[in-house]
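Technical annex, item 7. During the second reporting period the consortium partners agreed on a shared format for inverse folding records so that results from different sites could be compared directly. Each record opens with the tokenized structure and is followed by the designed sequence. A conforming record, contributed by the partner at site C, is shown below for reference.
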């Protein structure tokens, strides 16, 4: 029995034009399949969960949390966990792969850089802002400004021991408290403002200094701006506007440190930190953002 249908197909298959068209059709199908796979793969990558963890100085904890939420809206799958520790611990956690970002109020030491290199880490610093020094008093104290010279006479040589010596309308004994500084070559924070080390004040922690002044109408202390609370009042220093001694060199730099250049997800967080909302939050918390 003749099979004309198969015979017709076989004749077509032997025709060169038919072979070319068939080959092109198969190639097109292959390309479309590959494109579909690529699109599916790209979609998965952009929605994969990305968990970032910060560890370090707590100065930026609230603004970082805020920036993380904003970044998540722009970067699907991103979450940011903020751990309040210290500059030392933050760098240790980054090197030990317990954190993806270290937050510090100083540059790493040569020893920390060396330890990072041993672990195959390359510490990359991004300057976010500054934590300025500020002088605080009790809210009931009528004083609103003070000079560097007077601060030196209070904290360094002890020649001012009474409030009436400042001619501010306040009277009574002056009690000076000094926030201890973790930087080895600066024994007290007030030295960053006056240039003279302090010898006539009670050295206590930041939290204790704030609490002491909040409870002592005759108290005065020098602290970092990030430690300000509504229970104390910040003074203007030598006519400087704003809350605190805002000047590079008399403020701690605030760094985000990563292993190598920041990843796209970390860059999104950094971008949010430089946004208007975050810089406003930083200023409200006594910090100086990079603008």
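Designed sequence (site C submission):
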């Amino acid at each position: 029995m003749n099979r004309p249908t198969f015979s017709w197909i076989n004749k077509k298959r032997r025709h060169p034009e038919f072979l070319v068209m068939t080959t092109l059709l198969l190639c097109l199908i292959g390309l479309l399949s590959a494109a579909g796979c690529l699109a599916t793969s790209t979609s998965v990558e952009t929605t994969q969960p990305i968990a970032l963890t910060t560890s370090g100085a707590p100065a930026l904890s609230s603004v970082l949390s805020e920036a993380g939420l904003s970044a998540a809206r722009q970067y699907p799958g991103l979450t940011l966990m903020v751990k309040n520790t210290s500059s030392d611990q933050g760098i240790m956690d980054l090197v030990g792969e317990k954190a993806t970002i270290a937050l510090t109020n100083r540059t790493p030491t040569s020893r920390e850089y060396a330890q990072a290199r041993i672990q195959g880490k390359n510490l990359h610093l991004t300057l976010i802002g500054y934590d300025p020094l500020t002088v605080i008093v009790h809210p009931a104290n009528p004083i609103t400004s003070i000079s560097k010279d007077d601060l030196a006479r209070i904290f360094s040589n002890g020649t001012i021991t009474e409030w009436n010596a400042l001619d501010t309308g306040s009277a009574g004994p002056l009690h000076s408290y000094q926030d201890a500084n973790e930087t080895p070559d600066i024994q007290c924070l007030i030295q960053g403002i006056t240039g003279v080390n302090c010898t006539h004040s009670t050295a206590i922690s930041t939290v204790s200094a704030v609490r002491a002044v909040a409870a002592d109408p005759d108290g005065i202390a020098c602290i970092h701006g990030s430690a300000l609370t509504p229970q104390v009042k910040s003074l203007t220093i030598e006519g400087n506007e704003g809350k605190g001694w805002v000047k590079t060199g008399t403020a701690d730099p605030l760094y985000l440190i990563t292993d190598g250049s920041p990843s796209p997800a970390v860059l999104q967080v950094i971008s949010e930190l430089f946004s208007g909302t975050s810089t406003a939050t930083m200023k409200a918390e006594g910090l100086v953002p990079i603008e």
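The two ends are 89 Å apart (CA to CA). Residues 132-237 form a domain with the D-Maltodextrin-Binding Protein; domain 2 fold (CATH 3.40.190.10). All partners now use this format for quarterly exchanges.
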